[in-house]
UniProtKB/TrEMBL annotation:
Highest taxon of source: Bacteria
Molecular function, one GO term: hydrolase activity
Pfam families: NUDIX (PF00293)
Key word Ubl conjugation present: no
Record flagged with keyword rRNA processing: no
Family: Belongs to the Nudix hydrolase family.
Descriptive protein name: DNA mismatch repair protein MutT
Keywords (A to Z) from UniProt: Hydrolase
Gene3D superfamilies for this protein: Nucleoside Triphosphate Pyrophosphohydrolase
Domain Nudix hydrolase: 6-135
Length: 135
């Protein structure tokens, strides 16, 4: 029996520092392995998107974030990988902790970039969020 194909819900955060740099993670896993992405992950059953992004960032990067606002919702569809995510993306800042790669099995690297000088190989959700952020 073929698995039912339904969209999944993921969350991400545009985390900016006082120098207006953005925090990105280099993905090791599908979707879009080898691309820089906003940190985040999947929403669990009965979890709000806000709680999910806070939890996912803590698990991935070891930091507590404060959500400032909802930035956008991305239709993250990658037909070549048979992937379909609906991804609310929030603007947030670090409330506590120091950034570290807590998931080296999934993230190759974690790095701050000037908002106007991010790598070319960014994920669909990152590209869309940056367009919305810059207006």
């Amino acid at each position: 029996m073929e698995k039912e194909k339904i969209p999944k819900v993921g969350v991400g955060a545009v985390i900016l520092d006082e120098s207006n740099r953005i925090l990105l993670v280099l993905r090791k896993k599908s979707p879009e392995a080898g691309c820089w992405s906003l940190p985040g992950g999947k929403v669990e059953y009965m979890e709000t998107v806000e709680n999910a992004v806070i939890r996912e960032i803590k698990e991935e990067l070891g930091i507590d974030i404060a959500i400032e606002r909802l930035l956008c919702v991305t239709n993250h569809i990658v037909q070549s990988e048979s992937v379909h995510w609906v991804a609310p993306t929030f603007v947030a800042h670090i409330a506590n902790g120091k950034v570290q790669n807590k998931e080296p099995h999934a993230l190759q690297e974690v790095q701050w970039f000037p908002i106007d000088d991010v790598p070319d190989n960014i994920t669909i959700t990152t590209e869309y969020a940056l367009e919305r952020l810059k207006g």
